Amino acid sequence: MNHATLTGNILTPDGWLHGALRHGAGTIATIEGAPADPSANGDDYILPGFIDLHVHGGAGRDMMEGGDAAHAIARLHARHGTTSLLATTMTAPLPDIERALDAIGSAVRARGRGEARILGVHLEGPYINSGKLGAQPPFAREASLGEVERLGARAPLRLITVAPELEGHLALVRALADAGIRVQVGHTTGSYEDGVRALEHGAAGFTHLFNAMPGLHHRDPGMVGAALAHAEYAEIIPDLLHVHPGAIKVALRAIPHLYCVTDSTAAAGMPDGDYMLGRQVVHKCMGGVRLADGTLAGSTLTMDQALRNLVAIGLDLADAARRVSTNAADYLGETRRGRLAPGCHADLVVLDRDLQLKAVYVEGEACAVAAD
């Protein structure tokens, strides 16, 4: 069996080793080395590949297009170090969602060369509150278990965002959780009490924490208060536009397994201009993506930049790496991803001392790296 060997500062589940990692046939074969402080040498960093559970688009393409869009998006994000992701849908009429899921389901079954592995779907809509659409189009609806099951027959639903305060949604949360699907609270007008009840019924996290949900007030703690007080997991967008660095630090102290997502749109990896997000036109300018009225509409973030942003606001590299990889893998129950250990998928990134990508491997395949 042919093996490739990488040397440098390797982040393992037990800490940093300075040594060599060998991989072949898509998995990590061996890791050998001695415990080391990576600041004591000038060698590269070898980290688990990034895992992004909230990806709408990239490279000018949108998941809701159908066709080969998912493949193009997965290639763009692999070039920025994302080795696996969840294809994320928008609130839309049911035929639009079905078309997107059919295409995503095909991409889940067959990863193309140079692409991140698509693990399944994050169904962000339509089971959200019309009072907190954010950049979602106005097609929100109440959910039914039968409808969700029919959608799940088209592509594997791994994560569903739900507004728990809507009629019948608490029962749905319980049914989905019992079926092994992760349910997140998001795009909600619900109260602190609604959030607590959702967690008691099996909800496991919160979609883009702080965004599209009632904020924290000391006499009305809101949905953000429920997350900060009780959640083990939540996703957050660390582009430093959606959430202030101080609020990110609050969440880091309160939520043990906070993990990062990009909420990236078709504008990721593209020049300024107009792009599609589901049925809506969004405009990329000055590093952000907005609707015509100025509402933030997803991001242009990639996970390599997310890592650098976390380090810039004060996280050490090992902690930052967990926030862009391991925690998301644990959340989905992906025990062979998000960590560098023998027998795990050879999903890894190599970064220089400035945290710029030098190499990306998806299940052992060397992928192209985005130019600076």
From TrEMBL:
Class of this enzyme: hydrolase
Keyword hit for Ligase: no
Top-level taxon of the source organism: Bacteria
Record-listed Zn(2+) binding positions: E124, H187, H208
Cofactor note: Binds 1 divalent metal cation per subunit.
Domain Amidohydrolase-related: 45-365
Segment forming the signal sequence: none
Its EC number(s): 3.5.1.25
Keywords attached to this entry: Carbohydrate metabolism, Hydrolase, Metal-binding
Annotated InterPro entries: Amidohydro-rel, GlcNAc_6-P_deAcase, Metal-dep_hydrolase_composite, Metal_Hydrolase
Residue positions of the active site: D263 (proton donor/acceptor)
Pfam families: Amidohydro_1 (PF01979)
Cofactor: a divalent metal cation
One GO process term, biological-process aspect: N-acetylglucosamine catabolic process
Record-stated family: Belongs to the metallo-dependent hydrolases superfamily. NagA family.
Record's protein name: N-acetylglucosamine-6-phosphate deacetylase
Organism: Massilia forsythiae
Gene that this sequence comes from: nagA
